[in-house]
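User: I've been going back and forth on whether these two constructs are worth ordering. Before I decide, could you fold them both?

Assistant: Sure. I'll take them in the order you sent them. The first construct and its structure tokens:
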Amino acid sequence: MPLNPAFEHNGISIITTEPLPPLGPPGEDVVCLVGTAPDKDASVQYNVPIRVANQGHWPLIDSTGDERGSLIHAVMKTHEKAAVTIYVIIVEEGADLAASTASVIGGIDPASKQKQGISAVPDCMERPTILAAPGFSHQKAVIDALASVGARIRARVVADGPSTDTEALVAFMETLGGDGSNHDRVYLVDPAVSIYSRKAKGDILVPGSAVAVGALASVKQWESPGNQSVPVSGTARTIEYNILDKTCESDLIQRNGGAAICHTALGGWSLVGNRTITGRFISYVGLEDTICRKLEMSSQIVMAKNMTKSFWDQQIRRINAFLDDLIAAEIIPGGQVYLHPTLNTASRYQNGSWYIVFDYGRYAPNEHMIFHVNAKEQFVEEFLESVL
């Protein structure tokens, strides 16, 4: 008798399934710094991202304790301000600033095909959310390179002004920005600052970005670092800040897309400024990057699945759950996820494409408080009526 092809099994089968994992929380900041460290540990390779999680790892970039190079002070000050993971990419020092700058900008080695300098940032084991190259980022070419990589991996960039005078700073900022520059994610800080050096047994000057990175990492990615204290003992030049005066020097700098380290009424020194070079709130950039990174990372698991109605419904519910978490945590005030009503055509579907809309609101930073203080005779009259 031939086998019955329709027969499967005289019994039961149990098939279990698991729903797709949730998108999870937004994630924490990861810093990547590019620069020089002539006294690095012998085990550390040039142009390879090295993870520096805490003070115990500092000898990897300063094995002698002489505090040489552009990286060590930025690492120390960032960890002093925020408990954040830092990756460092060490490049070889050149004969002069121009040669070292070329190493920092990097590229692809034609012989070994190894990524070098800023080009090696995407090789970090954890995706950086903040990029900087203290000591070199007062140059447009370095800012351009950082901004280009920052746009690719969705990371904000901390850069430096010339730290000379405000006229030169404004002139420098006028060379930045524009369509296609990616400078809408560049947070530029002036001036250089004084910090205490154990090796020098006194104060030394370091770029403002060396402490601004820590201020940015000490707040959530969707928050502004403005008004954060910075661990410095002084600044290379005084930038006036007056909370009441629209004509003060710090206001001029902010109006042109920069941030300043100033002495404020809070005492000590604070980072003043909420916007990037293009005038966009840095908190808006961080929020957008946070959302887009999460959507990107969560999408890989469902690639190549058949686009059935249940598949679409599942994805919309999954992303809406992430959005609801953002609302509950007061990261955004509201939002909605849905299929695009007009772009999801038959031809696009047959080509394997579909469109999801992620609408969301944003909380603006408190940049300008406006008080109306009015003297009114009404309250005098009411007082007199109550006692006469």
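The second construct, handled the same way:
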Amino acid sequence: MKFSQLFSKTLKNAPAEEVAVNAQLLIRAGFISKVMAGVYEYMPLGLRVLNNINNIIREEMNAVGGQELSMSVFQDKETWSTSGRWESAKEVMYQFKDTNGKEYGLGFTHEEPLAAAARHFISSYKDLPKAVYQIQTKFRNEARAKSGLLRGREFLMKDLYSFHTDQKDCDEYYEKVAEAYVRIFERTGLKAIRTFASGGLFSKFSDEFQVVADIGEDIIYINEKENRAVNKEINTGEVLKDLNWKEEELVEKPAIEVGNIFKLGTKFSEPLGLTYTDATGQNMPVVMASYGIGPGRVMGTVVEVSHDDKGIIWPENVAPFKVHLISLGVNADDVYENLKTQGVEVLYDDREDKSAGEKFADADLMGIPWRLVVSGKMGPDEIEIKKRTEAKPQIIKRSELAGML
């Protein structure tokens, strides 16, 4: 991609109302555009990052047997009334009437509609286990939409749902997904800590995946020996006794929740009539679990924990491009074409109306992992290379470039 052809442009200053670093830098760098509080649009650069994150998630979900599907965002009142959540979720669920007075909602999660859909395909123990997921836009009537991509009213979610014959089978699969989550966050450049949290109406505990960050709205207490944590909301003497943890050994930190997983039991399958016939012919309720990750929230969290005073520092796995190529007073088309031929994703700053300082500032702001510079001050077979995380560049032979990248 040539910089001169980019749809978006960089900005010197972030919008005054943005207080979160992720929103400030992503808007300034041209990755996202703000529509209103809690609603952002992904520009081409931002969508490249988001797609990279989604692809990592897909790979790991597929690896644990997940099958991707796409459910409707449009929600039927009757389905949600069956579980009782049409009323209990009114504060967060956008609900409305059409011109005929029929009531609908916009999905913020999909336990009910997935359980309803599964009734068509699960009837015997031979049909189980199953796991399906989607990466889909969700809506939530969020009263505190002020943290950029970390807390939105419209947001992308990967939600996986698994279906099992019994709790033992569910527990075993749950741990496989938990391990996949750890891999997802490692691959996206995040150090996420598996954290005990409230299981709500479903189970004793759920699991959150928390990334330590100053902007984090959650407080967690970390057991560094076990690399696990407990959320402040359930950090009681009884819970610590259950975990065999000592309060004085825990470290308090603010953190961002980037994922959560729940054992649902038969909370949704029973009211929605999702059952199966076991090997003895007895009719049994299907045991369920759900697993969520917000790809946009992951993107915002990466920026929160990986930036400096100049801009974003993208990990290579999620960066929009691997290389940011800059030409200073000379044509670098040959380098650009060679990189593309080798399969290297490159953003080529070919702008002729910008100074070297402006080009370097934009490169630092946008945070692409490798910066290459071609100028008239170098020999015809030389090129300058610098990692975004390093302070000083070095001059190398162009023939050495492939090996370094």
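Notes on the second construct follow. The chain has twelve helices and 23 strands. The chain has two domains: 3-308, 321-404.
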